[in-house]
Amino acid sequence: MKKTITLMLILTMSALANAQLQNTDFEQWQNDPSDPNFPNKPNGWIITDGFSEAPHCIYPPATDAQNGDYALTLGIWYHYVKDAAKQTVPIDYRPSALKGYYKYTDNIIQGNSGPVNDVAQVNIYLTKWNVALSQNDTIGKGTINLNESIDYSSFTCPVTYTSNETPDNVSVYLDCTRIKRAGETENLIRMEGNGSYFTVDNITLEQSTVGLEEFTVNNIEIYPNPARDKVTISNFTGQAELYDITGKLVMSKSLTEDKTITTEQLQKGIYTIRLTDKTNTSYSKLIKD
């Protein structure tokens, strides 16, 4: 039986998003960014050593910006100190994704059985203060891993929500290396010097201009939902992307004449479908049985 899914119309509003996160183009620095010998850090961001919340400084900003004059470059020194950048600010809406531009170079490190490719990571967390328990509850999050890129490439880190509530804080965390990363089980080190240079620029939050108001987009139908072997997306032509609960892209397909997506290889759980055509981006949930 067909099940009509009501989709939320998503439009990018960079100006509104930038009013929340600070210094997302990394143009503002605590000290003169033209002095290459003076420790520095970007305004609005906490730079840590990657292993604790201890404040940390980095050397001058990157001048090969994606747009503007400066960008942020993070890196690892041997396996003792790595740069990580974090920002937490108030928010009063539900962003659908974190977007930006990055380069990632010199990212070969030593693993248990030889050299391996290092991987940078972008994280976003949406929290809501729980009055009853006096704690912040995470109601939405996204994580995306980024591989080597000599030139600037765009990234999109979708947010998956576990609650219908509106968050009151958003945190962004930028990590330049797998070394000493939470959840990393392999013994990883950098054999010599600096490396895993993760350069980031022009971050934005993607959000809906209509808040939580929903629209039925072109009578799109997604069925069956829950799905087992395959799912059909009718009345839609464009790009379909499927993300798991961590925000990882697990499948992408251009839907033209063939409107089906094979799902038999997916693990059971909740997924987010992102549908993009020439004018709109829409999101819906898919349950895999």
Automatic annotation (TrEMBL):
Residues 222-287 form the Secretion system C-terminal sorting domain. Residues 1-19 form the signal peptide. Pfam families: Por_Secre_tail. The lineage of its organism: Bacteria, Pseudomonadati, Bacteroidota, Flavobacteriia, Flavobacteriales. It comes from the Bacteria. Keywords: Signal. This is T9SS type A sorting domain-containing protein.
